Amino acid sequence: MRENRHIIREYEALRAVLTTGTTIGAARRLGISQPAISRALTQLENRLGRTLFLRISGRIEPTAEALSLNETLDPLFETLSKIDGADWAHTENKPLSIAASTTIAHCFLLPRLATFLKQDPSRRVQFETQPTEQIVAGVLEFRYDLGLTSAMIQQSGVKLIPWRKSKMVCVMPEGHCLANRDTITPQDLDGVSTVDFVRRLGGRSLTEQIFNRSGVRPNIIVEAATNIAAVELARAGIGVTVLNPFPQLTEPQRGLVILPFESDIEYRTSFVLSADRPPSTQTRNFMRHIKFTTPEDQFSEAI
To answer: Would you tell me which of 40, 164, 255, 296 could form a disulfide with 13, CB atoms 3.0–4.6 Å apart?
Structure first.
C-alpha cells in the first residue's frame, strides 16, 4: 500500500530544485547534501506515483506534474512562513523584478503595481520600462522575473502567456474627413497624412505589409517610437495613426475619434517568462493581480 504521509523536506527539495534548476543548487539552498536532495525527490515520486523530473544527459528537467504540484504547494508554504515568522515565498528577500514596454507601463501598469504593493507592505519590486528586445534579453539572463509586452515575439528560451487580445484601430483628431466612417480600410488611407512608427519597431512592419498588399501609399508625416507619441501627434492634428488600442485607448479620449481598422492582425498582450525557470510565488501572484484588475473595454478582451 502506498505511504501517504506528507514529508515537508521532500516538498522543500522539490521547490528548491525548481527554483535553482539543479540538485547542487537546491542542496546549497537547503544546506544539505546533493544525495539527500536526490533521495528526497525519489521518495516523493515513489510516494505520489508520479514522475516529477526527467533525467536527461546529466540534467534534471521538471515535468508538468512537478510544476502543477509546486503551484499547489504555495498555500502550504505561505502558512508555514506565517507560523515561522519568515516568508518562504520571498526567497532571500529578493524584490520582484518587472520590466514593461513604455505604453503598458505608463498607460496601464503603474496603478496596478501600486495596489499590488499596498496589499502587502512587505513586498518589494524593481520596475523598469524597456523596449521589447531588452525585456526579452533581461528575462533570458534572469535579470527580470517578468516582462509585459504587446510585441509579437519568437524567441527560444522565453515563454509567452497571452492574457489580452485586441484588433487594430485607426486614431484621428475630431473633425477629420474620415471621422464619420464606421470602419477604416487601408484604401481609405491612400495619400492621407499619417503618423507611423520608426522602422526598428514591429508596428511599422505590420502597417507596411498591410499597405503594400493593398497597393496603398499613405503620406507619412512623422515616425514615432511609442504609441503614446503617435496618439498625441494624432490628437494634435498631424495625421491619423494605426495601432494597437490596448491599453492606451481603453479609457475615453478627449479630442480623438477611434475607429476599427480593417485588418486580420490580432495583437496579444503577454507576460514574458523564462522557459528554463518556473515563476516564483510572487511572480504568479502579480500575474493573477494584473488579470483580476484589468477592466473590460470596447477594444480588447481577455484570453
So the answer is: 40
DSSP 162-178: EEEEEE-EEEEETT-TT
Nearest to 18 by CA among 283, 276, 282: 276
C-alpha–C-alpha distance, residues 2 and 233, integer Å: 68
Alpha carbons within 13 A on the beta-carbon side of 222 = 18
Is the separation of the CB atoms in 67 and 278 below 8 Å?
yes
pLDDT, one tens digit per residue, over 157-182 is 899 999 999 999 999 999 999 999 99
Residue 247: is the preceding peptide bond cis (ω within 30°)? Answer: yes
**Residue 1 pLDDT class (50, 70, 90 cuts):** very low
Q: What is the pLDDT of residues 197-207, one digit of tens each?
A: 998 888 888 89
Nearest to 13 by CA among 79, 86, 73: 73
Q: How far is CA 36 from the centre of its chain?
A: 36
pLDDT on residue 233? 97
Task: Kindly report the pTM of this predicted structure.
Answer: 0.68
Distances (CA, A) of 252 to 133, 182, 213, 216, 261: 30, 18, 32, 30, 18
Q: Please report the domains of the chain, with CATH numbers, ordered by start residue.
A: 8-84 (1.10.10.10), 92-164+268-296 (3.40.190.10), 169-264 (3.40.190.10)
What DSSP assignment string belongs to 73-111?
HHHHHHHHHHHHTS-TTSGGGPPEEEEE-HHHIIIIIHH
Answer yes or no: are the C-beta atoms of 263 and 188 closer than 8 Å: no
Backbone angles phi, psi at 302, to 5 degrees: -70, 150
Lowest mean pLDDT among 57-61, 83-87, 97-101, 169-173: 83-87
